[in-house]
Queue: 2 jobs
Job 1
Amino acid sequence: MACDVLVIGAGITGIYQLHRAREAGFDVQLLEAGNGVGGTWYWNRYPGARFDSESYTYAYLFSPELFAEWEWQEHFAEQPETERYLNHVVDRFDLRRHIRFGEKVTSAEWDEASATWTVRTAGGAEHRARFVVAATGIFSVPYFPDVPGREDFRGESFHTASWPTTPVAFDGKRVAVIGTGSSGVQLIPAIAGQVESLTVYQRTPNWCTPLNNGPITAAEQAQLRADFEVMQATLNTSSHGFLHQPHDRATFDDSRDERWAFYEKMWNSPGFTKLTSNYTDLLLDPAANAEWCAFIAEKIRGIVDDPATAEQLIPRDHRFGEKRPPFVTGYYEAYNNPNVSLVDLQRTPIVRLTEDGIETADGVGRRFDIVVWATGFDFGTGALLRMGIRGRDGLALTDHWADGPRTFLGVQTAGFPNLFFPGGPHAAAGNNPRYNGDQVDFVTDALTYARDHGCDTIGATAEAEERWTAMVDKGAAMAPSFGECSYYFGTNIPGKPRKYLLNSGGRPKLFKEIARVLDTDYAAFTLSRSG
Ligand SMILES: Cc1cc2nc3c(=O)[nH]c(=O)nc-3n(C[C@H](O)[C@H](O)[C@H](O)COP(=O)(O)OP(=O)(O)OC[C@H]3O[C@@H](n4cnc5c(N)ncnc54)[C@H](O)[C@@H]3O)c2cc1C
């Protein structure tokens, strides 16, 4: 197959890229490793999987008609609804006929003479394209810790991020969940009431706060539609891509009573507001952060009946916001069920999996019917580095990024012309589709610019890449609250370079730099004609 633009990945970013590039008049095809549309919302179908972003702020905003016709059921939709929504979008905009499912890309090689990419898939297919847009996601490569005997376990085992399409029968089963990150803490309360026993293996606890979800009432549905344009304008310009407004006070501007009343308000507010609308110095002043954490610890002690379990659930190794904070429904309450128990892996690490269970360092062996790995992802660079990408002069991306990703705007890397990766490392942070969408809009503009100027190749210069990468690394080193203990820095993967994988300048820096590219007639890129 040959086309102008080959998109890889049918998640929310790739679908939008397919739509935008087609709209701009390109011949576009999309390859997807999975057998359906949705990306994150196709693979992560474990019980309890749902948004932490408000549904209507996560959805596409490019079509007022699409926005008006899709009625989200809940403020924070569950996975099946989001998967249905993305399928609806694909059909509504007649995109499905451009998508090939079950096509996992295993190599992509640049040919200078023809100014094209040759892309090969696991099934042996070969595709040629002038431009490749890898919308392969930052949470798309599940990670398994290196635990001896993982393959020996004879019961059923699942990773939350490659969940089967047929329901898993948990009823009356002895279940182990390994990991208490954002996925584990959604899954645990969703199955606790169903299983015979649930044993949670926790490496480090997280600062979990309530999601405060609820159905969207008819009046709210009407208001959302009436407010569409204002909401679109807010979301298109907000630094984090949410509707939440920042607070106007620092912690110690308020008395203790006022602070506790404010924390209570935060605790009862929806999702990410605890981060985006909290006191302005939450991430800047360690004392401010410590007090908010003390408030959450007090809540945990108030909810969890067993004091020893409560203490084990309180984080000691990081501040709020230093890792991605999970938002939960009934998580701490789940530990009050007599069939739920917690194993602290700091004290008693897993030694091995056996045929019928898990053995820990205290010599205890527990038997299970099902083991669930909620152990996260090779975040940021995982998918791109596994795709066999080779650019100019055969340069392998794995070599170019041996010390961590190097990008310009989080969309291109020098030496790999005509390859774009919106939604990859160095993008921004916050409500993902908003800044991934900014990147897709920019990529579409760049493709159009190259075509309209009669150019076959477009590639970020080494200087532009150096400038953006230095900005990311410098910003990450400066932020006082952000230690290097999270997947943001790749520290969950042994041996991975400790480099910040998001964009520490956030969406404002992205806007500024894109404006500069447009104002300077693409000076940060080299454009040329082949032949
Ligand atoms: C459980 C969970 C909940 C989340 N909740 C939120 C939230 O509330 N708010 C938020 O902003 N973000 C959330 N995220 C982050 C989420 O990943 C993004 O919001 C968004 O879905 C990313 O979309 P994407 O299209 O960029 O990537 P993905 O959705 O990851 O899609 C990438 C696609 O590329 C495909 N692919 C990868 N490699 C290859 C290859 N070699 N060949 C072919 N295909 C390939 C994958 O199969 C996948 O379908 C969540 C993530 C998870 C895991």
Job 2
Amino acid sequence: MKLTILGCFSATPRKDTNPTSQVLEINNHLFMIDCGEGSQVELRRNKIKFSRIKHIFISHLHGDHFFGLVGLISTFRLLTRETELHIHCPKGLKEVITLQMKLADSWTNYPLYFHELTSNTSELIFEDDKVAVWTIPLDHRIYTNGFLFKEKEGERHLHLPSVLEANIDVAYYNKLKQGHDVLNNDGILIDHKKVTLPPNPPKSYAFCSDTAYKEDIVSIIKNVDVLYHESTFLDKHAHLAPKTKHSTAKEAALIAKKANVKTLILGHYSTRYEDLNAFKLEAQTIFKPVKLAKDGLHFNFD
Ligand SMILES: [Zn+2]
């Protein structure tokens, strides 16, 4: 599982900082999460292949989370994309994008699907045999969802010396990896657990931005490997958090602690702060495994 931060600041784009966008590589999927202005430049800078993005998840309709989308959709067309693109987003985004394209008499030459969200309870919005994605309803000034990405358990691994020792035909290797017992060349039933190792533990990632402190997300994100939680403010501006429906670094840490996550990544910093390390220090008074998001940073969680 690999996370690339394309942008992690709130409000306006600046010379060296971008609004929210990230790309999550999980089990051969490349999911884009939010698409603030400048996202496609950052995709190029990070050498991410545009054609690998088939699903884009938009948290909410504030500009710093989706103003890059119409540009990206348009670029896909110029790149003669043919594969489907799925946008998972709050209701209303389809209207915005189609109006922009209609007025420009510019249509996609690839299938573009909008999956509009309206539910206030967590729902499964994507699933295949490798990954499932749920919404995480958040508390912001407008309808907002975070997203929970969960790998499914993969195949077991062959322990080759044991397999050879057990005299099993190669044709049965896949069955073993799938957890079936098989007959060996002498007609003896071999317990798959004796010749294979357990699958890698499935990884999970929760993206929670933008939101006020919302304790009831804890049950949804319990025990995830990585939590990205917004921390717009430091404690000295804590009074602004409830008003603007954002969180402080300490609140993000409290959620991480209650949810027993392995790693917390902070982001969505207000552009008023020069020293981002202060976010980490404040969060670490409550929860130690904290990392700071930064534009262009890659996190590997394998
Ligand atoms: Zn925002």
